[in-house]
Amino acid sequence: MLAEEQVQITAPSQADHFRLAALHRYHILDTPACEDFSFLTELAAKICEVPYAYISLVDADRVWVKSCAGMHIGELPRGESYCSLVVLSEAATEIPDLTLDPRTAHMRLTVNAPHMRMYSSVALTSSDGFAIGTLSVLDTKPGRLSDDKRVMLVKLARQVMALIELRANEKTLEATVHELELLATTDELTGLHNRRSLLHRLKFEVARARRFRSPLSAVMIDLDHFKKINDEYGHAVGDQVLANLGRLLRENVRVIDVAGRYGGEELCVLLPSTPVEGACKFAESLRAKIEAQVHYAGTRPLRITASLGVGAFNHIEIDDVESLLKQADAALYRAKHGGRNRVACGSD
Ligand SMILES: Nc1nc2c(ncn2[C@@H]2O[C@H](COP(=O)(O)OP(=O)(O)OP(=O)(O)O)[C@@H](O)[C@H]2O)c(=O)[nH]1
């Protein structure tokens, strides 16, 4: 009883708060099983000549086991785990007979099968000096590890920690690469693909349409008299209108569609697997949504319209990459000259 109270009272201290922050920085809790960690755990059991070993991370109210050898434990309540004692003392801990130590005699793994008797462990210490978990070995016979074995256990614990650091660095690198990719392909103002990314995706979609003999359409969108918005209300309001339009497009395209900013106030949507009829329907519905969208110059509401041109390939006549946009551009020209706020389709 006394031991349980000790573990629970000490756990939520200020020091534990910083320790938990160090643990959570590694993003290792609840990650899937991994061969590299299993290998180190098995090696610990082999070197120490004991049947059981595990790598544990001590969270706020549970001890989560990253890998184990000789048994299966997913997680334990913190008050039921020998490892909690190690992270509290932040040192290597050895308990030669768990039944004789008042802190561990009552614990589940001591009382129930497999009736652990010996526990020896080394703290896993974060780069900023916090004990975030342990590498532990256990036996059902009481005893002590020899000095040689303890030295090896300390070395193995360092390898475990190095692996935890490596995995965390890989995750950070992955996230950074993803962020950079996003920055390099996204137009900052509209949140759509930038021109380079749009043209890159166009090449890819043309190749795919050829390969699978599927249709591909492109819709060019140009705002009507946008210069007037800039001239009358200022560039910042013009920018806001473009940003709103970007959001409208993102919310109204399918996951497989590619919406991008082709030029200043000219946007483009690529519609894979969509024949000209479907693309014209989409363009007409988008035109109506743009017309209905309300923007604001301060408190003053504004509306703007757009002209749209649709270009389309069917699978029989997939031409070169540029000709799809040329077709959409020519249709857009007709929509502008036909009076604006309208859709012109294909070569009609
Ligand atoms: N605020 C803002 N304006 C932009 C941006 N890029 C282009 N523009 C403006 O968009 C306007 C385009 O003007 P025009 O090509 O004359 O076309 P328009 O006024 O929309 O007229 P039509 O297309 O013929 O209906 C210019 O005033 C550009 O300065 C931008 O990123 N932000």
UniProtKB/TrEMBL annotation:
Signal peptide: none annotated. It comes from the Bacteria. It catalyses: 2 GTP = 3',3'-c-di-GMP + 2 diphosphate. GO terms for cellular component: plasma membrane. GO terms for molecular function: diguanylate cyclase activity. Its EC number is 2.7.7.65. Residues 214-348 form the GGDEF domain. This is diguanylate cyclase. It comes from Duganella guangzhouensis.
